[in-house]
Write a structure and sequence with these properties.
alpha+beta, Ubiquitin-like (UB roll), six-stranded mixed sheet, 25 helices, 12 strands
Length: 620
């Protein structure tokens, strides 16, 4: 094969691409030639040496993974690509071959600015969305939008996008068309960004200023590029910008108010109200004894009176006899007034909250009266196991659907964590821990052997129902609670468990077996169709292994391979939340069961739990 039409002068490659070698693009303009390399590679072309003297020698590396292209500026690498290939069935004209390699280059590392520039260059518009290249560009876009907080601030991203939109580097008819395409790509990226990360960007002042400036720029470009009218409409629909944002005194096109008014009338018909933002809810721990608390789900703006009323109803004590006290520091006590807020702006409680009796000023002690404990056990035994599982699943699903996949990124890269960015994720982790403690508390507070046996049987059935309802978070929590040392050591109780329940418990335990990197769980979870609730601690473990096992930066270049793996894990949340068939995993349960499940009473002191265990069944 020969290089005709001067192509061998177009690509001056450094020595033959032996395994492990790099091809360096020295000039900025050479990056645009990467598309030509892609096309030639798809046609089965081979890269040739281009020495000044001597014959041309072809060289084909054995491994595509060994071939990398580096873009250099001022003597430093700014973007690194790696060649990947996949086998495709194709008929090549005159070649007589049925198998052809579809080779392409993917970005593996680079500076934030160059990664963004490459993303915009490769972004496909609506006409190419269904193609393989279109899907790859959308995946790259999703990777970037999910993980950009790792390597650049929102303010930097806003400035970079505005710069790319306003850049004027092309002349002539072809240049104008290319400039229009670049502007449309920037607007498409902004649309995807605000749609994906809306909750995180809603209160960001940098984003508000950026959207206002971008809207002005797009409106002003309508004269040169009338086809941007659709993009202007999208901006108004998505961001609800007012007419004055583009037609105020600062705009250089003051004579265009008539056209702008006509356009605004069109858009007003298309504009729809965005749904009201759901108020954030939190799980509040209110201690009713020294080492046990009630878990109460309330809104982030809850007042002390609202919280006290919920606790009073749960423990069966008149609200007038109780008061809410915050332990602000060792020895410091703050009596909260009825209208005092119990949470700060970061959704953190003002201190450790305790409920005390007004007459005594002491923390309650609800575990001394045997009649109250028997009544507590009888109440749980009277509840239907399927209804309890439904209430647990409904509780978890409400939190899980409000969780954004980007929370995993913020949670993993701790230096970027903002306390109110991980609310749903933290709630689910807290809930998993509370359900485990709830199982242990209920079993260990039951002093009668036959009732403990009934409780364990009930929890086994609830765990099986949670698994059937595809709620793996509560399922794991219940099994871990029954397997906890303080409960598993109750040999007299476990001996009384019928063989049918022992076999069922053994089958459920197999799913939670951690051997072979939780293979049993992963296989079982993969077979479940969405919507479903994963076991969040294991997902965080997988992401942590990726984070700790791979460097985020290589020689000051962002390791985008690592971020792609992180984004793949984060997308699992989106896949689990999807409900394509329309069959939700939640069902209706009785108000009595919901009230019980929504306010779990647990002991969170392991020493106290072990003392209860040894008191229940002393050592032989």
């Amino acid at each position: 094969m020969s290089w005709d039409c001067g192509l061998k002068y177009m690509f001056s490659m450094s020595p033959a691409l032996q395994q492990g070698n790099k091809c360096i693009l020295h000039d900025k303009e050479e990056l645009s030639r990467l598309e030509m390399v892609q096309k030639l590679a798809k046609d089965g072309c081979r890269f040739l040496q281009n020495h000044g003297k001597g014959p041309e020698v072809t060289s084909e590396p054995q491994s595509d993974e060994a071939v990398r292209l580096c873009v250099r500026e001022r003597g430093h690498d700014v973007l690194v690509f790696q060649r990947v290939s996949s086998e495709l069935t194709a008929s090549v004209r005159g070649g007589g071959r049925d198998e052809a390699k579809n080779r392409r280059y993917v970005v593996v590392s680079g500076t934030p600015e160059k990664i963004l520039e490459h993303l915009l260059n490769g972004l496909t518009l609506e006409d190419d969305r269904g193609t393989t290249q279109g899907k790859e560009s959308e995946t790259l876009l999703d990777d970037f939008l999910l993980t950009y907080p790792v390597f650049m601030s929102t303010s930097d991203l806003c400035q970079a996008l505005l710069g790319h939109y306003c850049t004027k580097r092309h002349r002539g008819k072809d240049g104008a068309q290319e400039a229009l395409g670049r502007k449309q790509k920037v607007l498409h990226l902004v649309s995807q960004w605000t749609s994906l990360c809306r909750d995180f960007l809603r209160e960001d002042e940098n984003v508000k200023v950026f959207l206002k400036a971008l809207y002005r720029c797009v409106y002003e470009d309508l004269y040169e590029h009338p086809t941007l009218e659709k993009e202007v409409q999208e901006l108004q629909k998505l961001y609800q910008l007012h007419r004055r944002h583009a037609a105020d005194d600062e705009s250089p096109h003051r004579n265009s108010k008539t056209l702008f008014h006509q356009l605004s009338l069109k858009e007003s018909r298309l504009r729809s109200r965005s749904p009201q933002r759901r108020a954030k809810e939190v799980l509040c721990r209110v201690y009713v004894t020294v080492d046990s608390y009630l878990s109460v789900k309330v809104s982030g703006g809850a007042a002390a009176q609202e919280l006290l009323q919920a606790v009073a109803e749960r423990i069966g004590v008149p609200q007038a006899e109780l008061m809410l006290v915050a332990i602000t520091f060792p020895g410091g006590r703050l009596l909260l007034q009825p209208q005092d807020r119990v949470f700060s702006s970061s959704l953190r409680s003002v201190g450790r909250l305790h409920v005390c009796r007004r007459d005594l000023g002491e923390v309650l002690n609800l575990f001394t009266d045997n009649s109250e404990l028997e009544q507590r056990t009888a109440h749980l035994l009277s509840l239907n196991t399927w209804d309890v599982a439904v209430a647990l699943t409904s509780f978890d699903w409400t939190i899980f659907t409000s969780m954004h996949e980007q929370e995993l990124v913020y949670f993993t890269f701790t230096r970027h964590v903002c306390s109110n960015q991980n609310t749903a994720l933290e709630l689910l982790l807290q809930r998993c821990n509370e359900v485990q403690l709830w199982v242990m508390t209920e079993v260990l507070l039951c002093s009668t052997l036959c009732k403990r046996v009934q409780l364990i049987k009930k929890f086994i059935k609830i765990a099986a129902h949670c698994k059937a309802q595809k709620n793996l978070n509560s399922f794991f929590a219940i099994i871990m609670g029954l397997n906890a040392a303080a409960v598993s050591r109750l040999s007299q109780t476990w001996e009384k468990i019928p063989g049918k329940f022992k076999r069922l418990f053994s089958e459920l335990e197999t799913v939670t077996d951690p051997s072979l990197n939780h293979k049993a769980y992963r296989d079982s979870f993969k077979k479940m169709k969405a919507p479903k609730i994963p076991f969040l601690p294991l997902l965080l473990k997988d992401i942590t292994f990726i984070h700790e096992g791979n460097r985020t930066f290589h020689d000051n270049l962002v390791n985008f391979e690592k971020l792609h793996m992180i984004a793949d894990m984060a997308r699992l949340i989106r896949q689990c939340q999807a409900d394509p068939v329309g069959n939700g995993i939640t069902q209706k349960s009785s108000s009595e069961v919901r009230a019980y499940v929504d306010n779990l009473h647990v002991i969170d002191n392991q020493q106290t739990l072990f003392e209860l265990s040894h008191r229940t069944e002393p050592r032989a």
